[in-house]
Specification:
This protein is of the alpha+beta class. It is built from seven helices and eleven strands.
Amino acid sequence: MAGLGAVIPTIDLKEFPDEILNQKLREAGERWGCFRVSNHVIPLSLMSEMKKTVMDLFERPQEVKLRNTDAIPGSGYLAPSVTNPYYETLGLYDTTSPQAVDTFCDQLDASSDQREILVKYAAAIDKLAKDLARRLVESYGLVDTNFFERWPSTFRINKYHFETETVGKLGVQLHTDSGFLTVLQDDENVGGLEAMDTSSGSFVHVSPVPNTLAINLGDTATIWSNGRLCNVKHRVICKEAKTRISIASFLLGPMETDVEVPSKFVDAQHPRLYKPISYGGLRKLRDATKLRDGEALKLITHEGVE
């Protein structure tokens, strides 16, 4: 059941001084684990060009889309499945790598103009994601605010094949993101994204707002913050018989080294919640257990700590 009256906050990135802005991002991250940002640095023209590129790439024949193979498990093309029958997605791992972008473009026979758009978009989104991550870190008064600079990023371009008979059905099952932070360019014309309000367990509609981007925090943010930041549970519901397009860009986490919890977050009143784990280890745990709705974190929680 969707919550009545609750609204995901929208934060204007140019309205407040840095300290107040950082505090608002932190409050939204702790309370909701998701929020929208307006007056961001991504040119609206680039967002429009990227959506057109995405729509064109999905028109490729199936045999072409199947070339988009995994760079890491689960990073490539996914056709509609029994679990998510209306959902189709293409993926690019390591978006800041020119070689990875070239490979993705070659796989899908992207034009030179489309390649240029993908490169510009990936760079702009990566910059925004890391700026938001830095602000969250700064809001806690921490000194090391750039530890995530070498963390890999990835994006998924998503198409929801919604029709009259699918209204009311799930486009994507309830899940949390595994990484630290997600920047989502959702469909400005077709809604369906819902976030769980952890205070009530009800779902809140994350309705489209023109010229904004949605931000989700994931499992890695919860581990890093020792439970302070919320890994928002979310899903997509078919609201109307229209194709829905979204572009999700993920700032992941350290693939091989453990996520480091700042010492400031651990004391007698706040014992360490989670056992050491890398982002790569977390991904493997989620895949092996098929627990993708945040429940995998319970498997790495220290005994006696809730």
